[in-house]
Amino acid sequence: MTNRSGHRARLLARIALTFFLLELTLQVASFALWLGRPDDSVVSDVDHVALCVGDSFTAGLGASEPKSFSYPASATRIAAKTDGASVGFVNGGTPGFSSRDVLRSLPAQLEENRPELVYLLVGTNDLRMRPALLEIPPGSVPATGFPLRFRIGRLLRITADWLFGDEGTGITSVDPADQNDPNNFVGLWHSEDLEIRFEPDGGLRFGEVDLRWSDLGSGKIELQFPNGNAFEAVWERRRRRLYLECEIWAQSYLLEPGPLPGPVYDILREHLATCARVCEEAGARLTLLCYPGGPFAKPGLNSFLENSAAKLGLNFIDLDAHFAPLRAGPEGATYYAPDGHCSDRGYAEIARLVVEHARQSVR
Questions:
Q1: Which of 98, 142, 159, 312 is the most buried (most CB within 10 A)?
Q2: What is the DSSP letter of 271?
Q3: Is the pTM of this model over 0.85?
Q4: Beta bridge partner(s), residue 288
């Protein structure tokens, strides 16, 4: 019995040590990324300063050299070549930042750089990290520095989402040979602000509306409305996601499995609103950007950011709309890095849009 207890104690000790070393490794790697983030020191010899804040898309991940070819760095070079008032763009982006992280760092960045303009691109990490609400009373500046958090937990959430993201939704994985099997979309799905549930018996809950569906074969279904009208819809499974298109809808849907993520969008919008207030208090004008699309874009996030900008009365730069014809062209892949971030060419496109907006704003 003693030997068995000793063996169990040694096993638990090894497991604990393994978790400790993994957490330590993740913390060191994250700290190295944080130290290697672009320098957000004040730019000099310019008439106007624009501060760019956000996550890895601002920091420049995916570029051949992030400090030189991020969109803020490219924007500074482009602005220097144009006529009129010169604008310097400060890169305050950090990979892995959520909206909470951005908001936590923003007051100190505003104090250091004294910008007239602030460009904000954030949100994709919120969907995985689900940060808690950060409240900043007027006139207060929260502590800044490397954000400490339990990183094994995040790693496990990301791994579980990748491996078992369909669990609990009634949705099965798809064999490419079974793409036409309607059972592949039975279950619960969501977009930015809508839940859709396909029942095996033909019932369909579309938001707050009860419909019926029937299989037409070849990736098509018929939607029957309570008033007797029927319309054809096209569906396709794209890995974990479900694509839906119908002639009566103003937009197509690329749906994620499971229910709406709950308060994550509410918290994101609250953080965006607080960012706008903090910028206004510092005498800066905030402009919100959405993501430039690409192979790993989060469905519904860009439309949420656009809607949030409208509700908060913020200027908005629609990167997704600008990139849509580019990625549909023969050289579309050259605007993106293999991991879904932008390439040098993609960041240069963002820079051109931001420079034009800044030039109009400081006139």
A1: 98
A2: H
A3: no
A4: 120, 316
Q: Are strands 87-93 and 117-121 parallel, antiparallel or unpaired?
A: unpaired
Paired with 136 in beta bridges are none
Q: Which single residue is written with the structure tokens 């004008």? A: 285
From CA 323, how far away is CA 78, in angstroms rounded? 19
H/E element holding 217?
Answer: strand 209-217
291 in Cβ contact with 298 (< 8 Å): yes
The whole-angstrom separation of Cα 284 and Cα 116 is 4
The pLDDT of residue 305 is above 60: yes
The helix (H) or strand (E) run that includes residue 29 is helix 2-35
pLDDT of residue 171: 44
φ and ψ at 332, to 5 degrees? -55, -40
| Sole residue written with tokens 């309607």 | 182
Residue 363 has pLDDT above 70, yes or no: yes
CA distances from 128 to 98, 121, 159 (A): 9, 16, 11
Are the C-beta atoms of residues 154 and 30 closer than 8 Å to each other? no
Cβ contact 56:334 at 8 Å = no
Distance CA 148, CA 155 (A): 14
In the numeric block, the tokens 């959520």 are attached to 98
Looking at residue 37, its pLDDT comes to 52
pLDDT exceeds cutoff 70 at 84: no
Give yes or no for a contact between 286 and 327, defined as CB atoms under 8 angstroms apart: no
Residue 256's SS3 state is strand
Structure confidence by residue, pLDDT tens digits, 214-246: 999 888 999 999 888 999 999 988 877 889 999
Q: Hunting for tokens 């918290």 — which residue is that?
A: 267
What one-character DSSP code corresponds to residue 342? Answer: B
Predicted local confidence at residue 239, as pLDDT: 75
CA separation for the pair 158, 151 (Å, rounded): 11
User: Is the CB of residue 186 less than 8 Å from the CB of residue 167?
Assistant: no
Joined tokens for residue 98: 């959520």
Q: How far apart are CA 337 and CA 62, in angstroms?
A: 5
